[in-house]
Design goal:
heterodimer; A: about 110 residues; mainly beta; 6-stranded mixed sheet; 5-stranded antiparallel sheet; B: about 110 residues; 7-stranded mixed sheet; 4-stranded antiparallel sheet; about 0% helix
Chain lengths: ~110, ~110
C-alpha cells in the first residue's frame, strides 16, 4: 500500500525561526510531491510542488526532494504566527497518476 | 474568477437517509476527486473522475457513489447514511499546470449522521 508518513507534531518554533517539516513516501514510482497548508476548519491550500531532486524556493518556502532516500521536506524561513497550521505532504500515486496520496499532516505552531 | 464550490457547507441527517453532496468547478478541469477527512486518518480518497461519464472507486468507496454528466459537476451520494460517514468531505479538481497535476480543493462539507 502506498504510504506517505509525516510526524504529527505539534512542532513548535519561535517567531522568526526556520520551521522544518518532513515527509517520507513508500512508492518509488511517485514523481511529483506537493505541500498543502490547512488552517483549522478550512480546506487544504496548495503551497508548492516539487518533482526534481534538490531544492525549490518560493518566497519564504523551500521544498527539498531526495528521491534516493524517498524524502521530502518543507522549510519555512522567518516563521510567522500566521504560518501556524497543519501542513500536508502529498505524493503522486504512481508515475503519471492524477491521484495523490496524502500524509496525515504535521501541526505547526509559531510562538510569538 | 474560476473556483470550486461545495454545497451544503453543513448537513445533519439521520441514519438510513440518502444524502447528496454537490461539487461544482468552473476551471473546466477534467479530473475531479472526493475525499473525506477524519482525525487520525488524514485525507482519504472516496471516488474520482477523469472526465464526463468516467468514475472510479478510491480507497474508501463503500456506501458512496458518484456520477459525472458534465465537466463542471461531480455529486457525491451516500446511499444510506451511517454514523461512520460523519466526516468532513472535500471535493477537489486538477489539471496539468507547470508539468504536474495540481489539485485544488473546495471549502468542504461537514456532514453529521445521527
Amino acid at each position: 500500500q502506498k504510504e506517505v508518513e509525516q510526524n504529527s507534531g505539534p512542532l513548535s518554533v519561535p517567531e522568526g525561526a526556520i520551521a522544518s517539516l518532513n515527509c517520507t513516501y513508500s512508492d518509488r514510482g511517485s514523481q511529483s510531491f506537493f505541500w498543502y497548508r490547512q488552517y483549522s476548519g478550512k480546506s487544504p491550500e496548495l503551497i508548492m510542488f516539487i518533482y526534481s531532486n534538490g531544492d525549490k524556493e518560493d518566497g519564504r518556502f523551500t521544498a527539498q526532494l531526495n528521491k534516493a532516500s524517498q524524502y521530502v521536506s518543507l522549510l519555512i524561513r522567518d516563521s510567522q504566527p500566521s504560518d501556524s497550521a497543519t501542513y500536508l505532504c502529498a505524493a503522486e500515486s504512481g508515475a503519471g497518476s492524477y491521484q495523490l496520496t496524502f500524509g496525515k499532516g504535521t501541526k505547526l505552531s509559531v510562538i510569538p | 474568477d474560476a473556483e470550486i464550490t461545495q454545497s451544503p457547507r453543513h448537513k445533519i441527517t439521520e441514519t438510513g437517509r440518502q444524502v447528496t453532496l454537490a461539487c461544482h468547478q468552473t476551471w473546466n478541469h477534467n479530473n475531479m476527486f472526493w475525499y473525506r477527512q477524519d482525525l487520525g486518518h488524514g485525507l482519504r480518497l472516496i471516488h474520482y473522475s477523469y472526465g464526463v461519464h468516467d468514475t472510479n472507486k478510491g480507497e474508501v468507496s463503500d456506501g458512496y457513489s458518484v456520477s459525472r454528466s458534465n465537466t463542471e459537476d461531480l455529486p457525491l451520494t451516500l446511499e444510506s447514511a451511517a454514523s461512520s460517514q460523519t466526516s468532513v468531505y472535500f471535493c477537489a479538481s486538477s489539471d496539468r499546470t507547470g508539468g504536474v497535476y495540481e489539485q485544488y480543493f473546495g471549502p468542504g462539507t461537514r456532514l453529521t449522521v445521527t
